[in-house]
Amino acid sequence: MEFRIERSALADAVAWAARVLPVRSPVPLLGGLLLEAEGGRLRISGLDYEASARIDVDADVPRPGKVLVMGRRLLDICKVLPEGPVECAVEGPRFTVSGDGARFGLSVLPLDDYPAPPPLPPIRGAVDARRFAAAVTDVAVAAGRDDTLPVLTGIRLELDGDTMTLAATDRYRFAVRTIPWRPTAPGGPADVIVSARRLTEIARSLARSGEVSVALDTGSAGFEHAGTRTTVRLLEGRLPRHDKLFAMRDPAVAVVDRARLVEAVRRVAVVADGDSPVQMTFSRADASVLLQAGYEDDVASQRIPAALEGAEETVVAFNPAYLTDALASFAGPSLRLLLLGAGQRAMITDDTGPAADAEDGDATNTPAGTGGVAGRGGVAGPDSVAGTGGETHRHLLMSVKPQLT
Predict the structure, then answer these.
(1) What pLDDT, on the 0 to 100 scale, is given for residue 402?
(2) pLDDT value of residue 302
(3) Same structural domain for residues 260 and 208?
């Protein structure tokens, strides 16, 4: 086996495939990357028990063949290689990498014991890469981090008609994005849970143009884009449905400049120790919102413009980290906050598009109890997200009891 390739192309391909390699594994071969060179193409593959990754790049291939080497060691070598063309070859029991006078050797691992990569599930359709990557990033902030509740560490991926819905919750917040997608194969709706960490890695690796092919079966999901392919094992279980939770009857509605609100939260949260909340007092008469945080003499406050409808005054309070995550997931110039009051649900949306009309839904408001947002809510209204065929972004937070007066 022998091939030649530019250092930057090799380094990028190795880094992309190596991201699925386990940090520690009882099976040393799973730390390997499989390199296959043939017909002017180099294919690099890696896998563990949960995911696999494969990438194809152009290369000059004088001698076709394949080799298995330790992936992270190869990645370390690629990072320090000089810029320019790189020559790689199998020489007996060693895989050599050389370029511009630098030369490295790696032990060759046994190919016979390396597991076969999982096949790509049937392709169901395609979605815009930039839009998909942004949607995954927006909802992943609400996914749980507790591995004792695996389903809450996932992102719900629902396909229904020409709409893709992505949703995540850790029981205290619930983020949902719907985006259009293009079905290319017959089949009914799909509703699966994919690891948020894995799906975020996939989103980050996507180029910002073109389409991503989405593949699904009963046990795995797959994604193909621009010469790359990833499969990931599905998580068992289901997330709570968001339709009822997101239906809100007669909320107070506040509209505020997003950038000014983000900056104000960041500023007053400096004195919010631990889970100490940031309190927000919206006033219709003053057309403003007063943000406050802290206790006793260690306090901070800032007032910024805000429009309020549906109430003369509304007071809510949020965990500052959760609120910051939610606000950072939006990009529009202004935000609309649907507020039911202290200790109840609050929804953040862009102040444009279908999501901005949520307060018009004819839904029954059930006061929130304890234990987070998941599993509680009213009766679904006509503004249910699934199947709208449009693009929406909603982030539900639980308001906590205000600490300041």
Answers:
(1) 78
(2) 97
(3) no
Instruction: Please indicate, yes or no, whether residues 194 and 316 belong to a single structural domain of this protein.
Output: no
CA 53 to chain centroid: 18
Q: Residues 248, 389: one domain?
A: yes
- pLDDT computed for residue 368 by the predictor: 33
Residue 151 is part of which domain span? 123-235
pTM for the structure as a whole: 0.86
Domain identity same for 9 and 128: no
36 and 98 belong to one structural domain: yes
One domain, residues 91 and 155: no
Closest CA to 398 of 169, 241, 238: 169
Q: Which residues of 289-317 are buried (b: 16+ CB within 10 A; e: fewer)?
A: bbbbbbeeeeebbbeeebbbeebeebbbb
What is the Cα–Cα distance from 51 to 324, expressed in whole angstroms? 31
Over the chain, what HEC string results? CEEEEEHHHHHHHHHHHHCCCCCCCCCHHHHEEEEEEECCEEEEEEECCCEEEEEEEECEEEECEEEEEEHHHHHHHHHHCCCCEEEEEEECCEEEEEECCEEEEEECCCCCCCCCCCCCCCEEEEEEHHHHHHHHHHHHCCCCCCCCCHHHHEEEEEEECCEEEEEEECCCEEEEEEEECEECCCCCCEEEEEEHHHHHHHHHHCCCCCEEEEEECCCEEEEEECCEEEEEEEECCCCCCCHHHHCCCCCEEEEEEHHHHHHHHHHHHHHCCCCCCEEEEEECCCCEEEEEEEECCEEEEEEEECEEECCCEEEEEECHHHHHHHHHCCCCCEEEEEECCCCCEEEEEECCCHHHHHHHCCCECCCCCCCCCCCCCCECCCCCCCCCCCCEEEEEEECCCCCCC
Query: How far apart are the C-alpha atoms of 345 and 376, rounded to whole Å?
Result: 10
| pLDDT at residue 372, as a whole number | 52
pLDDT given at position 215: 96
Q: How many domains does the chain have?
A: 3
CATH number at residue 376: 3.10.150.10
Does residue 310 sit in the same domain as residue 346? yes
In the chain, the N- to C-terminal Cα span, in Å, equals: 74
Q: What is the model's pLDDT at position 373?
A: 55
Low-confidence ranges of the chain (pLDDT < 50): 354-355, 357-371, 375-389
* Residue 324 domain flag: yes
Q: What is the pLDDT of residue 130?
A: 93
